[in-house]
Fold these 2 entries.
Entry 1:
Amino acid sequence: MIPRHQSILFIILLIASIALGAVLWTTLDRAHKRLLEGENSAPTQAPQVAPSEQATLMVANDYDNSVTPRALSLPLPQNSEGRARALLGKLLDLYAAPGSTHQVPGGSNSLAQVFLLPVTAGHAGKRSTPGKELAVVNLTSSFVSTHPSGLETEALTILSICATLHANFPRVTEVRFLVDGQPRATLAGHADLSRTYLATEEVPSEEAQP
């Protein structure tokens, strides 16, 4: 015969097991319902990708010291500053690719931001010039630190960026450069980053320097 105290303990353990099983079943049921709700709320369509558009990149060539247009079809955002960043990012990706005519490492990650601002006339009044914009290109310090040194190669990078902006945004007539958000004297020891560039400047040659 089972002692009374053992019978009571057995009944208590049985009740506890049933209660624990009920709690576990309820928890699993709730988790299953949340999983089904998540599946039902998941988008049935893939997120929209920006449509491809014709764009012109002004690509540098070290072999003949030139900057020439190259037409490409690229997905571009609608926002002007986003478009400018995407275009310059593609240009820098071309330079970082094997077999590039202008070998510069870094690619699109070398570009932090691009800002498009009204051109101001004079320094006193700071009046904007209708129909003209200044592009501010913010490069990363890693790009600058790995850029090949030399007047022509640095100038080709700078002026191809300026020309690409102007080719796709005719309102951009001037370009300034920053590095990690701060002014910098030169790109890699030669090309002056402290000045404002005209978007249509030509590439200088070594012979033209004093």
Note: The helical segments are 4-41, 80-96, 141-146, 151-168.
Entry 2:
Amino acid sequence: MTLHPPATRERPGMNRIILSRFGPLAVFLALLASSSSFALPCADSDQACLRRVVEGHAVRRIAFWRPFMKGVPADRVRRAPAELIDYLVLDNRLNGFAETPEPVDVSPGFEADLKAALEELPAVVHRLMEPKLVGIFVVRNLGGTGYLEAVLDERDTPAAGFIVLDESVLTKTANAWFIWRENTPFRPDPEYRLEGRIETRAGDNRKNAIQFILLHEIGHLLSVGERFHPFWFAGPQAVHREGEYPFLDVSWTVAPGRKEFASRYEKEFPYRKDVVFYGTPRLDGAAAQEVYRALAATNFATLYGATSPYDDFAEAFATYVHGVMMRKPYEIRILKDGVERMVFRSCWAGKRCEAKRRILSEMLQAD
């Protein structure tokens, strides 16, 4: 399937290992933040300068956001404030995204879909989310569909997070978006086709596409300050012994050198390191059947979840809430010359995801 332009990539901000501190440029940045076209305080090539500015930005501290953290999650859907746009512009430059994010008034239709997607989530998700959600901010030209970044409290402890969505690229129905996402790791092949379904025909609309994307970002949000996996600011160096991060231990270990994580299924699932979503695909379309057959021998809930411990948790959370608690479908079909060759379904009813199900059901007071 043809890849969409970069503006359709999901972009979890937490995948960037960035420490947050107040810096001397934060006040200067706030003064400049009224326009997304201001002159940057650093050249794009000066990564050290950009990193210092991003690390010291006011929006990375919970003190900035406390006035926003009122009401239920649906009350926290807002136009992005100038300071957040400032931060996103700088963060894009730091991480090599060409787009310049801009504030936008949320259109009535998109706001209705977003709030309905939130309101339909189980009550326990709302209860867990409310203390940690700074807000959900809508922009355009983000360089991705969704983005989550954590903020620190007065003790420099991860405490909350903000979600950013780009309304202009969130236009697909649920199944169309899901089919596009699952195709992005594979190079097109005329004989093979990958199809998918996360909604019934009646529920196949934009609101439910937004809902599934939100569930992934909420998964990241709910991991902030918890012990499911090490906080992404710290990375593998934060792991000192088994049992310290129970969810991590189910599927991951720390690789020699302590600079990256390794899957416990590297032999059973050798394709994992070539799985790249929203970028240049490394896998042939003809390999899709074998990739998903190998994935079914692991305890990763989705192919996206196999890419990192952080997305492993976010995808497990999203598919568990979506499929188990909300009783919605999740399946991927591999076809060759129009003939179905295999079906990959949710793992939550089987044994392969049993250990993760226990952790999530305890967290969500389900089952």
Note: The mean pLDDT is 89.
